[in-house]
Design a protein that fits this description.
Number of strands: 18
CATH superfamily of the largest domain: Trypsin-like serine proteases
Largest sheet: 8 strands, antiparallel
Distance between the termini: 51 Å
Structural class: mainly beta
Helix content: under 10%
Length: 347
């Protein structure tokens, strides 16, 4: 209602708005981190969401912020008057006209010869406030990952990461901050992971990328009004009590698929032309979980449906808890698929 009244009055005939000085604008942005937009208006509202809501025709300074009534720690409340003009505080955000990053979307390395899936988001205390998880082999050259002593490396910010669907027109969405590629040790769980510092299109919620088909969300127990989302960050480790539960993933290539877990550790020697070294040593992923494919009833007898395919590397794997509303808990992430179309999932 406030928006409708404000829109009506703003379109009435009125005089030209005054403007604020550069000093006043600079002071506001320097002292208030919650500000998203500043402008002048010919109408001012008060008492919003109360029985005494009024709209007054008068010139005022409008301060837009993300959340009204919230004052960041160490800051003061907004001023009531600025250079003789009363202040009206409204909620609003300002961002580029680009979709935010979402779990499950397609990403590409800077040469666009490696594609994968954006995994989960992680709050960081390092160079970047927020990073996302993906596979190291998606964003880094295999030759680099195969260095003899390669375990964890930081400072690889020359490796840029792009939205895999936009042709790089909008610039990189992130740069590689940290990678880990640890294989061959039968006593440990092999790791193929990278943390990508976000430099563009920050995530705004826990909604998953809409890379799935309508029938896929129905089969998994969701609907068009209750789409899958992962906003709380909860995980659930695999145990004797839950290993028989179905698992789902949302990947850039195959969308939302649902399968079951094989409850034993597996090791896989990956077939890749760059994974064979000069001394004929092959790289092996150790102590992984496999996901069994289901028979696809829409295809000829005994045909198995894909759980993942190329470009699905790093898709998060979830168990679905509760029924209304459905709650996703993360169990791991996909790394590779086998020739029998099983999937390998990190523990």
């Amino acid at each position: 209602m406030e928006r409708l009244k404000t829109f009506y009055y703003m379109n009435q005939k009125r005089s030209r708005h005054p403007s604020l000085s550069s000093k006043a604008l600079d002071d506001l942005f320097q002292n208030h981190s919650n500000i998203t937009l500043l402008n002048m208006s010919g109408v001012r509202s008060s008492g919003f969401e109360t029985s005494k809501c009024t709209i007054e025709r008068t010139n005022c300074v409008v301060i837009h912020c993300q959340v009204k009534g919230f004052i960041p720690f160490g800051e003061m409340s907004f001023p009531k008057v600025i250079e003789g003009h009363t202040v009206d505080v409204r909620e609003a955000t300002c961002k580029f006209a680009l979709d935010p990053l979402r779990i499950g979307m397609k990403i590409a390395n800077h040469n666009r010869n490696g594609f994968g899936t954006l995994g989960g988001f992680i709050d960081s205390t390092g160079t970047f406030n927020k990073v996302f998880l993906t596979c190291a082999h998606v964003v880094c050259p295999i030759a680099t990952l195969l260095q003899a002593d390669f375990t964890i490396e930081t400072g690889r910010q020359e490796e840029r990461v792009f939205d895999g669907t936009d042709g790089n027109e909008n610039g990189p969405v992130g740069v590689v901050e940290k990678v880990s590629f640890q294989l061959n040790d039968l006593s440990k769980v092999s790791v193929d992971a990278a943390l990508v510092g976000i430099i563009n299109r920050d995530p705004v919620d826990g909604k998953l990328a809409e890379v799935y088909k309508r029938e896929q969300i129905y089969v998994a127990g969701f609907s068009e009004t209750t789409l899958p989302e992962f906003k709380h960050g909860e995980i659930e480790t695999i145990s004797d009590d839950n290993f028989r539960n179905d698992v789902i993933k949302v990947g850039a290539k195959t969308g939302l698929t649902i399968e079951s877990l094989k409850y034993e550790n597996s090791c896989a020697r990956l077939v890749h032309h760059d994974l064979r070294l000069g001394n004929n040593i092959m790289r092996t992923f150790c102590n992984q979980y496999e996901i069994s494919p289901r028979t696809d009833s829409s295809l000829p007898s005994e045909t198995k449906q894909l759980f993942i395919d190329e470009s699905d590397s790093e898709a998060l794997v979830f168990i679905v808890k509760n029924n209304n509303p459905a709650l996703l808990k993360c169990r791991g992430m996909t790394v590779a698929f086998t020739f029998v179309q099983d999937s390998i999932q990190k523990n």
